[in-house]
Amino acid sequence: MLHSLAFTPVPNMMTRQQQKQKTRRAIIDAAFNLLDEQRSLSSISLREVARVAGIAPTSFYRHFKDIDELGLTLVDEAGLALRQLMRQARSRIDAGGGVISTSVNTFMEFVVSNSNEFRLLLREHSGTSPAFRAAVLREIQHFIEELTDYTASHTGLSRQLASLQAEAMVKLVFSAGAEAIDATDAQRKEHAQRLNQQLRFIARGAAFYASK
Predict the structure, then answer these.
(1) Angle formed by the axes of helices 115-125 and 130-154, nearest 10°
(2) CA 63/CA 66 separation, integer angstroms
(3) CA dist 97 → 16, 35, 36, 82, 91 (Å)
(4) How many C-alpha atoms does 5 have within 13 Å on its Cβ side?
(5) Is the per-residue pLDDT at 9 higher than 80?
(6) Half-sphere CA count of 176, side-chain side, radius 13 A
(7) Average pLDDT for residues 122-128, to the nearest whole number?
(8) Cα angle at 74 between 72 and 80, to 5 degrees?
(9) Which domains does the chain possess?
């Protein structure tokens, strides 16, 4: 009887792998929390991240090689979060929402609710680290490719024109996000209205060009 009890699994006991994933998540969340309107990736230290995550600095190295590797993970996560949200927007569109208005509203929701993630993408897009710049450009390119696929499959545009339209729209949206991130609610509403009109100009221009 004692022998069997000694090997009975304990319910709810976290496995080593689960604990590792939990700690990794805590490190990532801690780094995002440190990135505000005043601070960039280059200004946060490993010790700060470890303190906010509630771990010893030496434990950091069990999950990331250095702070730069963590930074690349943050860029990947920020880009993925934005793409996932825009996929949800396309689901809303398929359910009957307006393409441009739904996309703009969803993007503005991301800027407000994930401001640190968006600031990260903005800053590192033109930052001093070549690795971070390349990582952000990859995320933007993923975004462009997904929008190209959607546009090509839902309009009469060729893939080449759909790609040009998607690139113009994504660059415009990111620029608008940079203006809206620290704006008031009223200012952000104005930004969204202007962005709606500008994106419609691009879409109509692409359609007109394709018809000639």
Answers:
(1) 110
(2) 9
(3) 45, 34, 33, 19, 9
(4) 2
(5) no
(6) 26
(7) 85
(8) 105
(9) 67-211 (1.10.357.10)
36 closest CA partner among 181, 172, 180: 181
**CA separation, residue 139 to residues 83, 122, 152, 159, 172 (Å):** 9, 12, 20, 20, 16
Can you give the three-state secondary structure of the chain, one letter per residue? Answer: CHHHHHCCCCCCCCCHHHHHHHHHHHHHHHHHHHCCCCCCHHHCCHHHHHHHHCCCHHHHCCCCCCHHHHHHHHHHHHHHHHHHHHHHHHHHHHCCCCHHHHHHHHHHHHHHHCHHHHHHHHHHHCCCCHHHHHHHHHHHHHHHHHHHHHHHHHCCCCHHHHHHHHHHHHHHHHHHHHHHCCCCHHHHHHHHHHHHHHHHHHHHHHHHHHHC
**Confidence band (pLDDT; 50, 70, 90) for 37?**
confident
55 within 8 A of 26, measured Cβ to Cβ: yes
Distance CA 106, CA 86 (A): 7
Contacts of 151 (CB under 8 A, 6+ apart): 157, 162, 165, 166
36 φ/ψ angles, rounded to the nearest 5 degrees: -120, -160
Which residue is it, tokens 């419609």? 200
Is pLDDT at 2 greater than 60 in this prediction? no
Q: Quick one: pLDDT at residue 26? A: 95
Q: How far apart are CA 83 and CA 14, in angstroms?
A: 31
Q: Which two tokens stand for residue 76?
A: 């990947």
